[in-house]
Each structure stands twice: as structure tokens, then as C-alpha cells.
Specification:
The structure holds 2 protein chains of 2 kinds. By secondary structure, chain A is an all-alpha fold. Chain A contains 3 helices and no strands. Chain B is built from 14 helices and 2 strands. In chain B, strand 1 and strand 2 form a beta hairpin. The chains are: A mainly alpha, B mainly alpha.
Chain lengths: 116, 311
């Protein structure tokens, strides 16, 4: 198969890939693991299992207020970006059609092509 | 690879979709301007105006009572470059950004290659894992690294090293430039891998096949075909990783502490703690100028190399 990885390169890529996946996921998994640990201080490997921390956080007034504000912020930022961005993207495409429609070789369909 | 025979058709019988497309896409300049106006106004008011304000601020003098005013002065810039503490922070910012970008390139290529070339299931899983951290806040990810890298026996990495017997005593990684590089690499890794993968995906596999039939080794193919053809993606990745790392604030603040300071922290400190707006603005201006300069120089070098190769 021409598009597949094979031979010594593949054997080299495999451990690197596995290592990088661990690298990417480690801090996320560690945070989750510590959050269900049954100790009031950080200890690894986590001891026991508890969902108490989650119950505590969900009942916390500060957390509830922050969660509300974060959600409001996320929704309004998305709406704002849509309102500004959709017309701009549309205009950008049209502005590109004004100029240079014939400058690029036919064979290259990419607008931001470094090669041509 | 089965070649599709191309038959010559009489020109008149060919459909002409391009002409129709052209008609549909053409619009008056007024429409385009009207559609762009909200974004332009927004960026002018909330980006250009404050940025220029900060730039102007760096040339002003702050009176003892805190008000900013004339005379215009270059004193703050002189102060910045004359103080070894600040040039030290500047150099450390550059070093951390360059090392992060370099390690990002070295670790980005393998994953981007696997993403593009391996079987669809594996490549989809890897793509998801690479993108996954993007939906988790930088603060959370950085605190995750703090848990892992913590000095002493409480650190998870140290626990791992001691348990497996790889190290006799705990290593001190947290609050060092290495920790900041690790954290930054984790935060900005997708910015390197995704453009690289998209550039690698556009390479016609026949080029590599042709080189292989001519007897080139895998390494030579990678060096002479894969890398040159993926340079556009590499340029985007390097620009993103370098600029974002140089300007980052959260990662060095949590993982670097006081021993691996970066310019972003210096700006924060000068403006929010010392209340020295002109000097904070100076540091910010130096940061932006250096990031711009490095990007322009490296992109220029890249395009020169490309044109040199073509002729």
C-alpha cells in the first residue's frame, strides 16, 4: 500500500506516537484522577474513591456563580464572533474574486498557495 | 495506480461552470465594504486603538502622581536594555520560545505523518487525542503539569522515577525553564501538528513512490521530498508556536515561578503591581517587536529558500 507507513520508519514512529499520546493525555488524566482521590491533599497514586469533591464544588455558591458567568460569556462571545465573522468571511471571499482570478494557474486551486 | 485516459473533447461541448461561478461571486465593492465594516470597526476600537495607545504610552513620562504626559522620551527603552534583569528575562523568553518551537518540530513531524499516513481508524483516534486538549482550559492543563512535575516526592513524575528506580532522589523540574517548555509544548502542540498534517496530506504520494523506485532511502525521501513540500505547514506551525509561547503568561506564571520569568509576566508585574504604565508598555512593545521580527525574518528566509529551489 503506497499510502501506508511501513518498514523501519513505521517501527520508529510507533513508540514516538504512543509516547506523545501519553504526553498529551497525562495532565488531563492526572487531574481527573486526583479529583476522585479520597485524601484532602494531593497524593499519587490516588487513594480510595470519592465523589465528595464534586458534591462540594457543585454546592459551592462561588462555583455556581462562576459557572453561570462562564457560560454566559462563552455563549455571548460565540454569538458576537458569528455576527462579526460570518459577514466578514463572506466579504473576504467576494473581495478575493475581484482580483487575481486569473493570476493563479488553473492547476492550483488553493487560495493561499505558497508554491505559485 | 490506474491512469484515467483523458479524451480530447471539442471545446464547444464542454460545460462552462467557471463563467457561472464568476457571475455569482462578483459583487459590488459597496456590498463588500458594508459586510466588512462591523469587523473593521470592532478591531479598530478593541484592538488597534488600545494597542496603539499602549505603544504611545511607552514614550510618555509618568509624573510622581501617576498621570501620564509629555515630554516624549526613549528613557524607558534605555532602562529596559540597560538593566541586566530585564535583558535576562528577554533572553529567557526567546530561549524558551525557540526550544519549544524546535522540540515541537521534532515531535510534530512523526505524529503528523502518522495522522496522515496510517490507517483511517488510527489516524482518527490520534487526531482526536491531539485536538482534545484544545477544549480544556490552559489553566487546568497547566495545573495538571504542576501536579506531575511537582518537586519532591509528591510529584507524579518523581513518584514514577523513584518507583521504577530510574532516579535515586527526586529531580527538581518545577519552577525551571524546562517545566515552562514542557507546559508550553503541551499547550501549543496542536498548533504545530495540525498545519503540518494538512501540508503533509497535500503531498502527492507519487513523488515519494517515484523517489523510492529510483532507489532513495526513506531518510533521503523525508529530507528531500517530504520536508520541502511540507514547508508551508511548517512555517505556519512555527509562527504559531513561537509567537504564542513568547507571549504566554499563564504557563510561565504557574510552572516557571520566579526562576523562569518571561516577558508576559514582566508586563503584568509592571502594570498591575508597580503601576509603571510606561515601562509595562515598553516591555509589551519590545515583546511584540521581537516576535514580529523573528517571524518576518524566518518567513522571508523560508520563501527565499523556496524561490532559490525553483530557479
Amino acid at each position: 500500500m503506497k499510502n501506508r507507513l511501513s518498514g523501519p520508519i513505521a517501527w520508529l514512529l510507533f513508540p514516538v506516537t504512543v509516547a506523545m499520546m501519553i504526553f498529551i493525555l497525562a495532565p488531563l488524566l492526572v487531574t481527573v484522577a486526583i479529583s476522585i482521590s479520597d485524601t484532602p491533599y494531593v497524593v499519587f497514586p490516588p487513594r480510595g474513591f470519592t465523589m465528595n469533591w464534586y458534591a462540594k464544588v457543585l454546592q459551592d455558591a462561588d462555583f455556581q456563580a462562576s459557572l453561570g458567568f462562564s457560560s454566559l460569556l462563552a455563549v455571548s462571545a460565540t454569538l458576537g464572533a458569528l455576527l462579526l465573522g460570518v459577514p466578514a468571511a463572506y466579504a473576504w471571499l467576494r473581495a478575493m474574486s475581484f482580483r487575481g482570478a486569473g493570476r493563479r494557474p488553473r492547476s492550483c486551486s488553493r487560495r493561499w498557495c505558497f508554491q505559485c | 495506480m490506474a491512469a484515467h485516459p483523458v479524451q480530447a473533447l471539442p471545446a464547444a461541448s464542454l460545460p462552462r461552470p467557471r463563467a457561472r461561478l464568476r457571475v455569482r461571486l462578483s459583487a459590488s465593492h459597496a456590498t463588500v465594504a458594508a459586510l466588512l465594516l462591523p469587523s473593521v470597526v470592532f478591531l479598530a476600537a478593541f484592538f488597534a486603538f488600545p494597542a496603539l495607545g499602549l505603544l504611545a504610552c511607552s514614550f510618555l513620562t509618568q509624573a510622581p502622581n501617576g498621570t501620564l504626559g509629555l515630554p516624549l522620551t526613549l528613557e524607558h527603552y534605555r532602562h529596559f536594555f540597560d538593566t541586566s534583569l530585564y535583558t535576562h528575562v528577554l533572553l529567557s523568553t526567546l530561549r524558551i520560545s525557540l526550544v519549544t518551537t524546535g522540540v515541537g518540530i521534532a515531535l510534530g513531524y512523526p505524529i503528523a505523518l502518522v495522522m496522515v499516513r496510517s490507517n483511517p481508524v488510527v489516524s482518527r483516534i490520534i487526531t482526536m487525542i491531539v485536538i482534545a486538549p484544545l477544549i480544556v482550559s490552559v489553566v487546568v492543563r497547566t495545573y495538571g503539569w504542576q501536579l506531575i512535575l511537582a518537586n519532591g516526592k509528591t510529584g507524579i513524575l518523581n513518584w514514577l522515577l523513584l518507583t521504577t528506580g530510574l532516579a535515586k532522589s527526586p529531580v527538581a523540574l518545577l519552577y525551571s525553564e524546562t517545566a515552562v517548555v514542557i507546559g508550553s509544548l503541551h499547550v501549543f502542540y496542536p498548533m504545530m501538528v495540525l498545519p503540518l498534517a494538512s501540508a503533509l496530506g497535500r503531498i502527492d504520494p507519487r513523488f515519494e513512490d517515484a523517489a523510492r523506485t529510483l532507489g532513495a532511502t526513506s531518510w533521503r525521501i523525508f529530507r528531500r521530498i517530504t520536508v520541502p513540500l511540507s514547508l508551508p505547514g511548517l512555517a505556519v506551525g512555527c509562527t504559531l508556536v513561537f509567537s504564542l509561547t513568547a507571549g504566554s503568561f499563564v504557563t510561565p506564571a504557574i510552572l516557571g515561578g520566579s526562576s523562569a520569568q518571561m516577558l508576559g509576566m514582566l508586563v503584568d508585574q509592571q502594570i498591575l503591581v508597580v503601576y509603571d504604565w510606561p515601562f509595562g508598555a515598553t516591555v509589551a512593545t519590545v515583546l511584540v517587536a521581537i516576535v514580529l521580527a523573528v517571524n518576518i525574518v524566518s518567513l522571508r528566509a523560508l520563501s527565499l529558500r523556496r524561490t532559490a529551489r525553483k530557479t
